[in-house]
Amino acid sequence: MTNDEMIDALQKISANSELSKVPRHLFLKETGLSIRQVYKAFGSYNNLIKSAGLVPTIFPQTGEPIYSDENLLAEMVQVLHLPDSKPTRIFFEKNASISTSAIERRFGGWINALIRCVELLDSEQDAHLINQIMEHKALARKNRHQKTTIIKQDNHSKTETEITNTSNDLRIQSNFPKDSSNYYGDFINFGGLQHTPVNEQGVVFLFGMICQKLGYVVETIQSGFPDCEAKRQIPGGKSKWQRVRIEFEFESKTFRSHGHDPRQCDIIVCWENNWPECPIEVLELKSTINKISM
Predict the structure, then answer these.
(1) In the chain, which residue ranges form alpha helices assigned H by DSSP?
(2) 105 CB-near residues (< 8 Å, 6+ apart)
(3) CB neighbours (10 Å) of residue 117?
(4) Full-prediction pTM beyond 0.85?
(5) First to last CA, the chain
(6) Rounded to the nearest 5°, which phi and psi values hold at 124?
């Protein structure tokens, strides 16, 4: 599609659906385009919205979340009321304008969010939805229980060592802590860091260890968005430095679920880049440290 064709398609979707704000997922679904194609043509989905003469989403300037609890729950209830809906993450991702990661982070898990939705449903008119949610909750609990149960195996199919190792692996899995502060990452023995990061704080520490080798100098670190202001050396120009705003995340995709405005940030520094269509630059430390000697 050309830029004009994208604009025309968005205007038609808006007119047909009578929406002044066309959700990104609806536009992509109707056109078959990828978000990368939109970013390449317009820089952002909001720029496409503006070019089509529609109302763009205005991001908050204070670092506050874009969506309130009420917004998130209302979107979930709306999706649950769709024909043939299912209370699953997959169905929600395909039909909602908000990612499941934003929901899970806010309410402490998908099941917790579904239970909050039950409070907003009508006990009579939505009885079938409530039953589906309760069944989904029971199934999720059953699956968790099965994953943490040691399965008896035929002693004749494995050596004694193999059986012992399998039992140990399952025991570790069943007792594995959910709180990331209670476990460690893989061994890397990188400089003074023995384990890989398991959270955002680990990413900040690791970046501080290697930023100078990567050509960065840190000006400030703050608790608000974005996390860091730094300068980086421009390649080929040792006397020239560029100001950059950095947001630290354990996984790059969390930037989106936190509701951050990409226009107010230049780089996401993360341990793992799991957001291929990210509209801004990403520095993945997981692959970067392999190129650095300490």
Answers:
(1) 3-17, 24-31, 35-42, 45-51, 69-80, 89-95, 100-107, 110-118, 127-147, 160-174, 200-210, 254-257, 285-288
(2) 254, 257, 258
(3) 23
(4) no
(5) 48
(6) -95, -55
Question: In the numeric block, which tokens belong to residue 187?
Answer: 């061994």
| Per-residue pLDDT tens over the stretch 159-204 | 444 444 544 544 444 455 555 556 788 888 888 888 999 999 999 9
> pLDDT value at position 248?
95
Task: Give the residue, 141 or 52, on which the prediction is more confident.
Answer: 52
3-state class of 74 per DSSP?
Answer: helix
Give, as one character, the DSSP assignment of residue 98: S
- Asked, as a colleague might, if the bond just before 65 is cis with ω within 30 of 0, I would say no
User: CA angle 25-119-121, nearest 5°?
Assistant: 65
How many angstroms separate the CA atoms of 285 and 123, rounded? Answer: 49
d(CA 174, CA 251): 25
DSSP class of residue 67?
A: S
Give me the sign of the Cα torsion angle 36, 199, 105, 144: positive
| Contact call for residues 253 and 271 (beta carbons, < 8 A) | no
280 contacts 267 by C-beta, under 8 angstroms: yes
Q: What one-letter code names the amino acid at 206?
A: L
Contact 278, 266 (CB under 8 A): no
Query: Buried (b) or exposed (e) across 209-237, using 16+ Cβ within 10 A?
Result: bbbeeeebeeeeeeeebbbbebebbeeee
Query: What is the Cα–Cα distance from 276 to 273, expressed in whole angstroms?
Result: 7
